Amino acid sequence: MIRATRLIRADALGAGEIVDRVVLDHGDRHRRRVAMRGVGGLAFLLDLPEASVLEDGDALALEDGRLVWVEAAPERLLEIRAEDARALKRLIWHIGNRHIPAEIGDEAVFIVHDHVLAEMVRGLGGSAEPVERPFRPEGGAYAGAAAGHGHHRHDHDHHGGHHHDHD
């Protein structure tokens, strides 16, 4: 099976023959080594040196130089809005306090659809409307410096008396 051994970021993508594409949701875009099949049927082994977040518009370089395009799949999300910038910042704080991955835009925040969080947002005066679109959450403060993405591990107390780890 041919291997994809290199990730090429969208902003560094030059010329190359794109032979297929993979359409992946947010959860499936954090990978290092996995067998994949493109939409056009090309089977290959993703075999990167380290786990990476595959972003919409990136490409995977196959051993023979051909490329496989990465596309973010539409997902069921909540589009969160508020009456003004201050109110939206307050909602972002509450979402962040729950360690929820979020995509932050100028006028809206997107999170994975969750009816409990939708009610929390509405209870705080915001709107939370279901939408279907690709999810591109923030990479986080401890994300990989080169790509601006990644995951981190931390331990802390949530002031609620419980202590736990996050991966």
Could you explain how this protein is built, in words?
13% of the residues lie in helices and 43% in strands. The protein is mainly beta and 167 residues long. The protein has two domains: 3-72, Urease metallochaperone UreE, N-terminal domain (HSP40/DNAj peptide-binding domain, Sandwich); 74-134, Alpha-Beta Plaits. Strands 2-6-5-1-4-3 form a six-stranded mixed β-sheet, with no helix packed on it. A four-stranded antiparallel β-sheet has the order 8-9-7-10. The chain is elongated and about 55 Å long. The two termini are 31 Å apart. Residues 143-167 have low confidence and may be disordered.
Which SSEs are present, and which pair or pack?
Layout: E1 3-8, E2 18-24, E3 30-37, E4 43-53, E5 59-62, E6 67-72, E7 74-81, H1 85-96, E8 103-104, E9 109-112, H2 115-123, E10 127-134, E11 154-157, E12 163-166
Parallel strand pairs: 1-4, 2-6
Antiparallel strand pairs: 1-5, 3-4, 5-6, 7-9, 7-10, 8-9, 11-12
